[in-house]
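Deliverable D5.2: sample structural annotation.
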Amino acid sequence: MAPAETENGVRYDPAALDRVERRFWREIWDSVPDEVAAERGIELRNFGAVQAQVVRDLPEAKMLNLVLGAAEDAERGGEGLGTAVAWAAEQGVSSYVPVTPGLPGATPAEAFLQENGFERGYCWMKFVRDPHPPRSPAPDGVEVVELSEPDQEPFGMIAATGFGMYPWAADFFAHLPGRKGWRSYVAKVDGEAQACGALLIDEGIAELGIGATLEAARGRGCQTALLQRRITDAGDAGCHTLFVETGERVPNRPAASYRNILRAGFEEAYLRPNWQPVAV
């Protein structure tokens, strides 16, 4: 597939972004301690080109119960998608199956999902930018610190709390600082870590994710500072494409993350639908 391009000429390869995204989630799953994974039903399996991940103790958390690679699998003519969604259903979770538009296998993947009891759900917007430095000044009163080891700051706790998850879910993220290919950060206000963000670098592509802020520090510019630091570090590391995603803008849903991403110089690349089982 030929690279795509934003309105302002930023080039990107949707298939490559999908590949990095699968690594992003796979390594989060790999970082969870074995005893926690066994206790909470945290599991990841591959079915052909499809990567399916579940959390049996969080059956309704669609942002975590994901079936990735549907379009790639359909393009190869494989049967991985059907096996993957059947396996996820057997685990008792409600999964999202995101399908990247424009990929050669997107249309047959969506046709399969529609024929097998899925419907389009809430979409995520994918944003891209090139590595030029941020043009706006950093927020006052926010210090961004890069972490070199898991226990340096409460990275996992901030992520779990900021996302509204149970305290035990901190183990999804707590062991990422210091992991190869990853860069993890906290933003401090008055000397206390109040927000977090991570950066995964893979063959010149950087994914920005795990952006969460504790309620007491919201509106203080923590995520703006974290975005700016990660953009700068990705550029310094030689990355040519940076990407991030958040939920689409719809009425009655918060849009602060969407605005922060645009202010940081990212452009809307494409809206990616999440297919979900039809409610019965």
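Annotation notes: The chain has eight helices and 15 strands. The first helix runs from residue 14 to 31.
The annotation will be released with the project's public dataset once the embargo ends.
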